[in-house]
Here is the input.
Amino acid sequence: MSIETKSELILKGIAAAPGISISKAYLYKKEVESANNEKVEDVDEALENFEFAREKSKKELNKVLSLAVDKLGKKRGAIFEAQIMILDDPFLIDKIKNRISAEKINPEYIVDNEISKYQKILNDSDESYMKERSRDIEDIKYRIIRNLKKKKWKSRIDSEVVVVTESLTPADTILFSRENVSGYVTNFGGLTSHAAILARSLSIPAVLGVHDATSQIEPEDIVVIDGFHGLVYVNPTEERLEHFRERIKKLELFDKELDKLKKVKAVTKDGRRINIHGNLDLREELELMISNGAEGIGLVRTEQITEEYEEFPGEEEQLKIYNALAEKLYPKTMTIRVLDIGGDKVLPVDVKEPNPFLGWRGIRFLEDNVPLFKTQIRAILRASNHKNIRLMIPMITSMEEIINTKNLIELCKKELKKEGLQFDEDIKIGIMIEVPSAAVMAKEYASEVDFISIGTNDLIQYLLAVDRGNDIVQKLYQEFHPAVIRVLNNIINDVKIESKIDVSICGEMAADPLAVPLLVGIGLDTLSVSAAAIPQTKKIIRSLNYSEVRLLAEECLSLRTENEIKEKVKKFYNEKLIDCTVQY
Ligand code: PEP
Ligand code: MG
Here is the structure.
């Protein structure tokens, strides 16, 4: 195909899965199955047809499920298990059958009507997670209708194409990956969509939420996906193609180079040792985390690793999860954060809050739900018997929350002792500093705990009053805002004057190559980053001189705008660390 005939077009979306790929576009149109409301003559035949379509849909989904389990492990398969469960939901199925019998209307119409009701409830929710689930339900609806019409399931496409589509269901994402699809571009879909999470797990570059991708990209167009920056180049110029071919080569070489750093420690050239820990969101990530050289887990997001359960798991179930992780990780330590739900993470109760991020979140929710909190504390304590577990409390805003939680932990210890159950008597308790009030009070709070971890994802949002998930104000969410840098510096100084406790950072900022020199310069001991970011973070630290980054930090602390700080760190990076990155 000739690429000179069309001019280059650059589209911007959400950088949902990193990586670069160059391929032909494949425009995938999900068939919207229409359903008419004609009367049926033979009700028995209609009911038989419905049963056939339901069984066929289940078979198809079972195929997708086993493929998903193979490729991604059991947890990810759960999405499809949930879809299969809907096909077995007696309430829904009986309702559909009863309506077919009573109304004698085409089953396609009744399926459409009934499942659309489910869909609407989810779609009307304020939670983006629920809205995403509504797309999964739509997938089931069209699947049954297609099977009622006895139409074939079309999933075969040529390999090595970039799939361009309106939106992706988890099933599409898995099936396409089987055909070695090299990237995804969608009109809709956010970072929290299962499709995005799956693309990341499958290491397939993806740019989502491009809005007009399907109207701007034509079949067979050459497309470059830059999953690092959320950019899509359609019919790129020869120079652009050459640039990205080079980038791909460099990325491959860079990855090989980083492989060598997995086992080494992160020590600056002048001898300052920084611990590199991992953030764990999925149990399956543990292997990669260990093989990439994590020296421990700095943050286990328990609300994420238990996401596959319909209800938050009970004590024994949690104990199994924590034990399995702690045993695999031993003797390295694992910091388990107690449930941080609320905000953008769905609460298990039906409440509507006008400002969820300022509402019932983290420790606030736990303090109001003591039985749930105790169940988790007991499970963590029992797993701590391996002596490699620490407990961390999220969203701390006051001293009372720390004292109350410590008292509750003591109470749980007493109960366990009475029951003859073992645990680590000296389990370390820490807090997250994510709220400005905790940053101001860091010295006092630190004197009550064994460690602190700074959660910049939230600290930045609360300090700058910028919703971390709102793309309208995304440019105001600034890691390098002088107030952010100064607050981080104050926390570290205040804590270290009073005590010798470990101060770590587990927000995404720790994995930003540009931010690492500054974070080391202001005196952080531990950086906790996602598994994939560990080798590069080590490389950066091993290329630094602590004396130089201290100076860099001092200079940045005197600057007055984000731009000035960013320029300074960029200059430093380009002069000293240019070998440490390929993504800028
Ligand atoms: C943070 O706020 O920086 C953090 C690590 O917690 P989460 O992203 O889970 O809110
Ligand atoms: Mg947080």
Residues 434, 455, 457-458 surround magnesium ion (ligand 2) (CB under 6 Å). The CA atoms of residues 277 and 563 lie 30 Å apart. The mean pLDDT is 88.
